[in-house]
Amino acid sequence: MRRVSRIAVAGVATAALAVTVSACGSSSKSSAGSGDDKNLGLALAYDVGGKGDQSFNDAATAGMEKADKEFGFKSTAVEPQDGESDADKVQRLENLAKQGYNPVIGVGFAYAPAVKEAAAKFPKTTFGIVDDEQTKADNVADLVFSEEQASYLAGVAAAKATKSNVVGFIGGVNVPLIHKFGAGFKQGVQDTKKGVTVKEQYLTETAAEGGFSSPDKGESAAEGQIDAGADVVYAAAGLSGQGVIKAASANKVWAIGVDSDQYKQDALKAYQASILTSAMKNVEGAVYELAKSVEQGKPQSGVIRGSLSNGGVSLANSNPSFSGNKEIQDAVNKAAEAIKNGTIKVKTS
């Protein structure tokens, strides 16, 4: 079984979009594949961590559900498998296209080679890839984000919130995408408050080692940073981030979530009071807009980037301890405007 132990995610198996996984990873909540359906709707191929990560994949699911509700789609989502190859991913995407799903979206940069190959074989199907912009084709939309901008604001918030003058960043996997989160966060901290130490750690070198799907790894790393004095810890680690939030709650320090507004996540409700804010990227909106464009007959293609300026990235304001703190809010809002007008140039590495 690929599924790792989840933190308070009982009931996921009975969720409305639960799927049955076959040997090749294909699954559906509809009886797709008869060949006479006009368009069943969109299909998601999940990244590691899968549905129920309370973060990246769940944000994509929310976009799918919104499209289903608005357009009457019968969309589907499929889970990845342990140790799968690019060929397995290609087969998954091709199966979805054959069944009549459009668009077909790979959730995560690991799908880039598979999207490129499948898109070439199915030119009439629109494919989407989240977090990668290397694939160039008329029928491919590269859904990417300025994660470093939201992370910079998270760094501003952390610098204002810390009392120990030590904060932490935990990345799931040591890859360029996650470096963007770390670089923006560190710059935001240092620009806001001199003398604050930023401890930085990556859980694994590859996604296959569980960096995005192991809450226990996240918890252990956070405990180490907290023991070293960190009183604010920011995680960009998918499902592993749940362990970071758990550790922060247990030690009564702040956690900063990622991708979704993790303060609002039911599975993290027990740790809610410790989630200062979340550096969000609007994966939900990107998935929905791609599906909408296909439905309207004008499919998006090329690089589509979410930023602070267009609302594609932001900081969550749900925790009253964050939204009601004037000092933090003033600093974050000032920094956001400076990023938007180009006064602040945020690093990506």
Describe the structure in your own words.
By secondary structure, this protein is an alpha/beta fold. It is built from 10 helices and 12 strands. It has helices at 56-71, 86-99, 112-121, 147-161, 176-192, 215-227, 241-250, 283-295, 320-323, 326-340; strands spanning 41-45, 76-78, 101-107, 127-130, 140-145, 166-173, 197-204, 232-236, 254-259, 275-281, 302-306, 313-315. The strands form 2 sheets. It has a 6-stranded parallel β-sheet, sandwiched between helices. Strands 7-6-8-9-10-12 form a 6-stranded mixed β-sheet, sandwiched between helices. The model is unreliable at 1-37 (pLDDT under 50).
Please mark out the parts with pLDDT under 50 across 5 or more consecutive residues, or reply none. Answer: 1-37
Task: State the distance separating the first and last CA atoms.
Answer: 35 Å
By DSSP (H or I, 4+ residues per run), the number of helices equals 10
Assembly state of the chains shown: single chain
* Rg measurement, Å: 20 Å
Order of helices and strands: EHEHEHEEHEHEHEHEEHEEHH
Q: If strands are numbered along the chain, what order do they take across the biggest sheet?
A: 2-1-3-4-5-11
Approximate strand percentage:
15-25%
The biggest beta sheet is recorded as:
6 strands, parallel
Mean pLDDT: 88
Shape: globular
How many strands in all?
Answer: 12
Helix content range of the residues, please?
25-40%
Secondary structure category:
alpha/beta
Question: Briefly, what is this?
Answer:
This protein is of the alpha/beta class. It is built from 10 helices and 12 strands. It is globular.
